[in-house]
Every structure is written in C-alpha cells, then in structure tokens.
C-alpha cells in the first residue's frame, strides 16, 4: 500500500468542495427556515474520536450546526470501530433505527466511516441491506470527506469509497471541532505496523506514518494559545514515532517539546508498545511537572508462549523491567494496561502466568477483554480457540484480582491532597464534580460551598487541589480545597 502525503492541490480540491457545500447548505437552511444540523457518532478509540472532531470541524465549516435536541440530524455520520465484535454489533443494531428517519427527511444524508469499513463483509452488508446509507468511506479518506459528500449529494446514489492508499495529512487543512474544553487530542502518527495476530487495526488503519515534527509542534502551540490545559498525543504505538521521517526526531523529542510549552498543565500520550518504549520517556515523566505520571502499557498476556503467538515481541520479564523502572522513577505514578483473556491456545497454565504478571505489576487499572475473533487476522484461523465458558470463567478471575488492585491503588490516595484537572459535573449526582489527578486517578469531589452559577459553569478545565478522603473500587472521593489556577 502506498503512503501518500496530501498535496496542496488535493487540499484545494477539498476546500472547493467545502465552499460548494456551504452554499448548498446555506440554500437548504433558507428553504427550511432553520439551521441545518449534523451529528457524528463515535464508536471507537481516541483516534476515532479525533477523526470525529475533524469531521465535525468540516461540517461546521460547511455551515452546519450540531444537533442539540431529539430531532433527526440532516447529516448523520457513524464513525465505526472494528476492534472487537461487539463494537460491530452496535453499529448494525443502530443503523436500522435510521431507516424511518430517512423516510421522513428526504434531505438527510447518512454516512458510515471508520475502521469497520475496511472489512469487506461489512461494506457488502451495507450495500445489501442498508440502501438508505448514502456514503461509505474508510479512515484513510477522512480528508476527502468534503468532495465525497458533495459527490454523494450530486449523484443521489449510494457512494462507496474504499481505497488502498494510506493518506497522511497535516492538520492545517481543516478546522477541528475539539469536543472537550480541557483536552486537545493530537494524533502524531497514523496506522500500525505491528500486526499483533489478533488485531484488525493494521488492516483498518494501514501502514504506520508519522506527521512531521514541525507541524505537530505548530499545532501544540496553537492549542496552548487557545487555552487548552491538557494535550493528549495519540498513536497506536507512539514510541515508534518518526520512522520514515528524515529529521531523526523521536517520540521522546515530541513529548519533551510538549512538556516545554507554557500553558500545558498536563501532557499525556496513548498508546505505547513495550517493545519500543525507552527509558528517556519515563525520565521525562519523572522530570517535568506537567508530564502525566501515568503509563499505559499493554501487557496482553503474562505467558511468553502466548506473547510469541500474539506476535508481541517481548517477554514478561522485559515487561516487568519496564514496570520496575517506572515504579522506581515516577513516584506515585500509575501503571495501567490492556489484557486479553482466551487468546487461542491459552491454557490454564498460561492464564495463571497472566494472573501472576498482574499481581507482580500491581496495575492501577486495566482494560480487560475477552478475545474476539477478527476475520482476516492470523489468530482467527488458529485451531485451538478457547471455549466461551472457559473464557468467561477466567475473565471473572482476572477481574476479581484487578478490581482488588485498583481498589488498593485508590485506597493509597486517601489522606493525600492532590491537584486535579476538573472535567465536569456529574450528570447523575448534582453537586458532585469530577476530575483527574496527574496520575490519572478519577476523583469525584464536592465544593466547600455552593458556588455562583457562573463559577459552576466555568469549572471544566480548571485546576484545583482536592483533599482525598474516601476510596471506591474505580474512583476516589474528596473535597476541593482551593483553585490553583488563579
Ligand atoms: N496499539 C495499542 C497497543 O498495542 O497498546 C492497542 C490498541 S487496541 C485498539 C486496544 C486493545 O484492544 C488492545 O491492546 C487489545 O488488548 C485489545 N484488542 C485488540 N484486538 C482484540 C481482539 N481481537 N480481541 C480482544 N481484544 C482485542
Ligand atoms: Fe493492534 Fe498490536 Fe497495532 Fe496495538 S500494536 S494496534 S494491538 S496491531
Ligand atoms: Fe477501533 Fe479503529 Fe480505534 S478498530 S479501537 S476505532 S483504531
């Protein structure tokens, strides 16, 4: 597959489509006597979320407004995920619902994009059973969305655009509608070359390609000027950033550059792969006060035999060495992970090694998954698939152990007063606010006195010290002592 950098001509074409569509939607708004609206539904990871922010940005440039009530949007985009079967089930479950909406609003456009569209069976199913879907495109064609949407509207026929090229574009081409006031998502690279044998991502997202160091730093400076306090550097394997670029810059260079930008109180990243993580990244976490003291490092399995069969080129001992170094250098930091239970061939002995590894690393939290067979991946054709009752039973045992460790990690916070970045108000419990510590622990807190409405409305993205006085399995409770940002 070819990696293609978007040219100025490509961008010009998309800009022209954008302005054509803004005229089209302007006329539609005048005809309907109301705003033309959009909704982007995100089913996947933070990279998907970041793509959705770009799609929303393009739609806003076309003059559309986000839908704010129960009405049907005029443009609906479903940005899908294929990582596990349940993410796919959710899409097909939801798609049927929109059939009647489409009947009532003939101007409505329904687009489906994201990783699921790189699986041919899914596209065939849409062609066969969902003729009211107007546009289908893959993640690599995100930047072609304006021209694809224009062509769909012009042709009034279902348009399927799935290609084989892996595009890369810097983000200066369209505006980004950043959904969270406190956090900016910044992809530094796209795709993945690791081909873990269970994983669909390399097929869905294509070959690994890194943005240029200069364009990333430029975007970081813009974000800081816009007042974002937290930045999240994104990639499937951020530690292999820069391969194929000529300037020799590595992920550690980007991480450090971000930490040096005044205005960022939190610099985070996701995800890193044990085979590529180097100590310099951990040293930066230790040395910079605004570097998040949180390392998310996927273990997947504690059995060296299974790691090999997963094509994860590290041993549990190598993983432990990283964990030990992190614990030694980043005091009070949190180590989190991803684990798959029931990978083909997993024996009780392999699983016990996973439990032992979890016990050794004392993960502060973990995303635990039951293995899901992904068509087209090598592991899907492995003979020794584990029966589902065995997987469920092991999964419960892992959860029990990990829940206990997460609870202990939260208990260790009780009595401390730590700075948190406030994320918002609890929807279920009035008077309760949420935020995260620098170690990414979730904190639910109260304020000493009910603040004025304008202070309340402005809490998201503020920093403050919270006295932590109670631990729960997945969070801690506390009270705000004072704001630290003036
Ligand atoms: N690139 C990241 C890394 O290697 O750390 C992982 C990204 S992937 C989107 C998130 C997690 O989904 C993986 O770490 C893995 O635990 C899980 N996952 C991926 N494929 C899976 C599958 N077929 N079944 C179950 N879990 C899976
Ligand atoms: Fe999937 Fe492995 Fe790539 Fe992560 S590193 S996205 S698990 S193939
Ligand atoms: Fe899903 Fe694609 Fe992310 S498969 S997890 S949305 S990279």
Can you describe this structure?
The protein is an alpha/beta fold and 486 residues long. The protein folds into 4 domains: 3-168, 3-Layer(aba) Sandwich (Rossmann fold); 183-270, Transcription Regulator spoIIAA; 293-410, Transcription Regulator spoIIAA; 417-483, OB fold (Dihydrolipoamide Acetyltransferase, E2P), CATH 2.40.50. It has helices at residues 8-32, 46-61, 85-95, 98-104, 120-129, 145-155, 201-205, 213-225, 251-259, 279-287, 304-309, 316-329, 348-361, 388-411, 453-457, and strands at 3-5, 37-42, 65-66, 75-80, 109-114, 135-137, 159-161, 166-168, 183-187, 189-190, 209-210, 230-234, 266-270, 294-296, 334-341, 365-370, 417-425, 433-437, 442-446, 463-471, 476-483. Helix 13 links the parallel strand 15 and strand 16. The chain is globular. It starts with a strand and ends with a strand. The model has no long low-confidence stretch (mean pLDDT 94). The structure holds S-adenosylmethionine, iron/sulfur cluster (SF4) and FE3-S4 cluster. The site of iron/sulfur cluster has 10 residues, from helix 7.
Summarize the structure.
The chain is α/β, with parallel strands linked by helices and 486 residues long. The chain has helices at residues 8-32, 46-61, 85-95, 98-104, 120-129, 145-155, 201-205, 213-225, 251-259, 279-287, 304-309, 316-329, 348-361, 388-411, 453-457; strands spanning 3-5, 37-42, 65-66, 75-80, 109-114, 135-137, 159-161, 166-168, 183-187, 189-190, 209-210, 230-234, 266-270, 294-296, 334-341, 365-370, 417-425, 433-437, 442-446, 463-471, 476-483.
